[in-house]
Model the fold of this input.
Amino acid sequence: MPLHIIKLSVGSEDIDDMYRWLKDAKAGRDKFSHTTRMFPRRKDEILPGGSLYWVIRGVVLCRTPIADLVPVTGKDGIERCRIEFKHQVVPVQPMPRRAFQGWRYFKDEDAPRDLPKGERGKDIPPKMRKELIELGLL
Done:
């Protein structure tokens, strides 16, 4: 079983923002990647098969499969990690998650399961979805 990463998606309002990010990357405007300060020490457990699970407005809503973890040095000379993704956003069973800084390891058995193909729960506004999850109704 792969090890995953979980991280807040700062600035995203909903899963559609993740799809727009993917669309922009496919259009060649940006690489489908995210750079973070710390490099995972457990790289061998994450690759192959790990994903980054995104917390959007307090709820884990999707994951992006990780293609590679690349060490990079910023213009300021600080070592960072560029997380490169496969061009895929996978909606998952919504799971509430409190805010935290940085990223955390996420065991496969703790990760929410993928939603059935074609199901995104788009009919429920994000705020209402979060409240229903917290009440245990979703």
